[in-house]
Structures are given as structure tokens and as C-alpha cells.
Write a structure and sequence with these properties.
alpha/beta; D-tyrosyl-trna(Tyr) Deacylase, Chain: A; 8 strands
Length: about 140
């Protein structure tokens, strides 16, 4: 699994003109699923997101969890684009929707089990994602 994680002041997902997920200060996490991923991988990715120490704290960097900050999780199969040949990306490395959706759900469930407030987009929908990045601080996580 892959995630692009961004520290944000605000982030929101809109589908058909309606806001379906929104957070204030916290993390925006775009999550992609590959063919080899499973529930254990999803839980490991959630742990990494939960424990990622990228917020300033009194004694150094702290995690969103340390500060009680929310996470907005948005499924993003395009993180598995292969752009090595030509100008048209290949999506063959991305898991199909029926495999990916439950694993993205598991990332969200594991974050919630760890005490995070989680907002989400809508799997498979055409979404508009907006964010005000803080820092900016954007990282690629892979498990």
C-alpha cells in the first residue's frame, strides 16, 4: 500500500456538490492499494499514519495522534500509476476496486481503533479534494 500524507490546516472532499468529508488541522492521506496488499498491510499503513511524527511539539516532533488531530482518508488508485513508458499512465499495478475498497476501509477502521477521528471520501466517486497544506509537509509512505 501507498499513501501520500500531507499536514493540513484544512481539507475537504466534495462529491456532486456536497461535502462528504472535512477536517481542520490534521492529516490528509491519499491511499492507494496494490495487488499484493492485504488486511495486515492496511493495518501497518494505518499504524504508520497514526504514529507519523511530523507536527511541531514542545519536545520535538509529535504525531497527529499525540495531538488528537483528525485524518481525512481518500482512496487514490492513481498512486499506482506506471508512467515509465510513453505519456499514458498504466494502472495495472493498482488493485481492482473490489479488492481495494475493503482495504481502504480497513485503514480507516484501524485508525479509529487507535482513537483517531477519521473523515473519508467516497470510494470510486469522482471527488474534488481541497486542502490548505501546512508547512508544506508532504510524505510518501509505503508498506
Amino acid at each position: 500500500m501507498r499513501a501520500v500524507v500531507t499536514r493540513v490546516d484544512t481539507a475537504a472532499v466534495t462529491v456532486d456538490g456536497q461535502v462528504v468529508g472535512e477536517i481542520g488541522t490534521g492529516l490528509l492521506s491519499l491511499v492507494g492499494v496494490g495487488h499484493a496488499d492485504d488486511v495486515a498491510t492496511a493495518r501497518a499503513l494505518a499504524r504508520k499514519i497514526h504514529e507519523l511524527r511530523i507536527f511541531p511539539g514542545a519536545d520535538g516532533e509529535v504525531s497527529a495522534a499525540d495531538l488528537g488531530l483528525p485524518v481525512l482518508v481518500v482512496s487514490q488508485f492513481t498512486l499506482y500509476a506506471d508512467t515509465r513508458k510513453g505519456r499514458r499512465p498504466s494502472w495495472q499495478d493498482a488493485a481492482p476496486g473490489e479488492v481495494a475498497e475493503p482495504l481502504v476501509d480497513e485503514v480507516c477502521a484501524e485508525l479509529r481503533r487507535r482513537g483517531c477521528v477519521v473523515a473519508t471520501g467516497v470510494f470510486g466517486a469522482r471527488m474534488q479534494v481541497s486542502s490548505v497544506n501546512e508547512g508544506p509537509m508532504t510524505l510518501l509512505l509505503e508498506v
